[in-house]
Amino acid sequence: MRALQYRTIGSAPVLVEIDRPEPAPGQVLLKTTAAGVCHSDQFVMDLPQEQYDAFGFGLPLTLGHEGAGTVEAIGAGVTGITLGESMAVYGPWGCGRCHLCAQGKENYCTEAARLGIQPPGLGAPGSMADYLLIDDARHLVPLGELDPVANVSLTDAGLTPYHAIKMSLPKLVAGSTAVVIGAGGLGHVGIQIVKAMSSARVIAVDLSEQKLELAREVGADEAILSDGNTSAAIRELTHGLGATAVFDFVGAQSTVELASSVVAVEGDLTIVGIGGGMLPVGFGSLPYDVAVRTPYWGTRAELMEVLDLARAGKITVETEIFSLADAPQAYEKLHAGTIRGRAVIVP
User: Fold this and answer.
1) What is the three-class DSSP state of 199?
2) Are 51 and 154 in contact (CB under 8 A)?
3) Could you give the residue ranges of the DSSP H alpha helices within the chain?
4) CB atoms within 10 A of CB 48
5) Could you give the domains of the chain?
6) What are residue 247's phi and psi, to 5 degrees?
């Protein structure tokens, strides 16, 4: 089968031929219908050798931690799944037995690192291949009638902002303001989630006019170009109070500093992006009683909730489609910042 693999540190991913896996007992083999392209992939491929080795991903690495497919083969002992069924893949695999996994919070599994359990595309073979091996049937969520190509990105670009925003919902009441920094792949879905689940006014911030236009299209009440006046503009829009919640989907040094300059007293500051920014936290460094969070992905139950939002027509993903053969070009466009929403690979 074909697979897009990262094979050499510092080099672009390449399309290769590898053997098709067969499911062992308890496992499920999917025929891939769609795979999402994510900035996290680029982050991994930009790591120098020492840091890459520290993550334990190994080489070669078949990319793709957003995946969907139809059930092709079922390992012994698997029940409740039928051949040909359309599935979305829950990516942050855990042990399934620890206290957090028992709550469906496999994204925070306390045993995964010790046991060498890694997500597909981030250690385990990923979805950018003709077939994808799933370690356990519990990591599959039925898509039903949802189009896998249009919705595969929700497994990360929907689930991650949903998990981040859900924690702040008690504060996002009428009269509140949510600032979304970065209106790209995650941010444009995050805007829709805030609008669908709260009464908050949404202010989107981005460096790109194209992405700000997308932000307006998906429901942002205000869209501000990021420059030296951004903080003052947000303060003016909030009558000097600042934002009830700030969701930073970039996470660069400049954006976390912007977030800290506009968050309100008792506000939430959530850093989702992995841009490497660091935020000093201590008495006097932020407004009183600000909560700072660095969430990771989301729970299995939350993925089901995200897909239900899609079924209700509350959220959609702006997608640009590439074939598996053209997947390296998708990463080139991602690196250049010219993907308007989310790139999707269709084998």
Assistant:
1) coil
2) no
3) 39-45, 49-55, 99-102, 112-115, 148-151, 159-166, 187-197, 209-217, 230-237, 253-262, 300-311, 327-336
4) 9
5) 2-156+298-346 (3.90.180.10), 159-293 (3.40.50.720)
6) -115, 110
347 residues of the chain, pLDDT tens digit each: 999 999 999 999 999 999 999 999 999 999 999 999 998 998 899 999 999 998 889 999 999 999 999 999 999 999 999 999 999 999 999 999 999 999 999 999 999 999 999 999 999 999 999 999 999 999 999 999 999 999 999 999 999 999 999 999 999 999 999 999 999 999 999 999 999 999 999 999 999 999 999 999 999 999 999 999 999 999 999 999 999 999 999 999 999 999 999 999 999 999 999 999 999 999 999 999 999 999 999 999 999 999 999 999 999 999 999 999 999 999 999 888 899 899 999 99
Q: Is 55 helix (H, G, I), strand (E, B) or coil?
A: helix
**DSSP conformation class of 169:** G
CA dist list (Å): 85 to 43, 108, 124, 217, 274: 33, 28, 23, 33, 34
* 137 within 8 A of 82, measured Cβ to Cβ: no
CB count in 10 Å sphere of residue 161: 30
